[in-house]
Amino acid sequence: MSGSNFALLAGPSSINFARSMARQIECEIVDFEFKEFPDGENYFRIISDVKGKNVLIVQSLYPPVDHHLVQLLFLSKKVTELGGFVYAICPYLGYSRQHREYLSGEVVSLKTVGHLMASVGVRRLLTIDIHNVEGLGLFPFPAFSVSAIPIMAEWVQKNEDLSDAIIVSPDFGSSTRVETFSKLVNRQYHVFEKERDKVTGEVKIKPIQLELEGKKAYIVDDMISSGGTVIKATKTLKEFGVKKVIAVCVHPVLAAGAVEKMFEAGVNKIIASNTIENKYGIVDVSNAVVGYLKLLG
Ligand code: R5P
After folding, report:
1. 36 within some domain
2. Average pLDDT estimate for 240-268
3. Contact assessment for residue 246 and residue 276, using Cβ atoms and an 8 Å cutoff
4. pTM, whole model, 2 decimals?
5. What is the mean pLDDT of the chain?
6. Which domain holds residue 22?
7. 224 in ligand 1 pocket by Cβ < 6 Å?
8. In terms of Cα–Cα distance, which of 104, 96, 248 is closest to 166?
9. What distance in angstroms lies between residue 253's CA and the mean position of ligand 1's atoms?
10. What DSSP character marks residue 31?
11. CATH classification at residue 160
């Protein structure tokens, strides 16, 4: 991207992710002023000249999701008014789990998010490991998802002792990701059958025939939110004699109380990426985005 017409704007939710991107690509940094008023309202002023530039606004939509979404909308609107072209980079795309009407009358939240973005001039979207690729079709402009699973696998292989390890997918939805992960770390994988009650949200896992006694299990998923999925899988794995459980995810949403509940249930460690800026997001996956942008030239 050297010498390209791209400029990078580090949104308030993704300062470190954007900094890491900036270390890997040569592009102008958009200077802006930002403050949050005591009542929680946001104030922004774009200082750099963005006219005619493709502005990459990096803003992950993790909790508080609505707050981070509004910040992205405000920034996009102003960049558009100043003559820039907005390319939204949302390492984690909040609302991506509501990409369809599961029960009649439900709001397809992701569709509305896409329309809001379009209304403030967003022209393209790039995210990482979207929950379901079907969601990309809801955006009224080109939307793409890149995978951080190869980077996560490389990190795990370098930093963890994988002898006696098995890789577990807590449901069929994650099985393709887990298959890729397990091939890259060269370990066997197993898929659990999971059922979530669409009304209560309760998750049930049906165990399958496994040889797990004394093993170490890496549960790999796209995200951990309430921790319910990982907890169910951990309990089943422990029943089967697994000695250590490590939860690996791309997006550590980790809603209030999730971490405590997971450790109580027997999870020994959480390894996650920096799509969400918290203490578990230790694996830098910004290269997945940078690699994609380099392809665009
Ligand atoms: C679901 O299909 C996803 O892949 C995750 O398993 C799920 O969203 C995690 O959510 P929670 O931590 O609330 O169970």
Report:
1. yes
2. 97
3. no
4. 0.94
5. 94
6. 2-148+284-296
7. yes
8. 248
9. 10
10. P
11. 3.40.50.2020
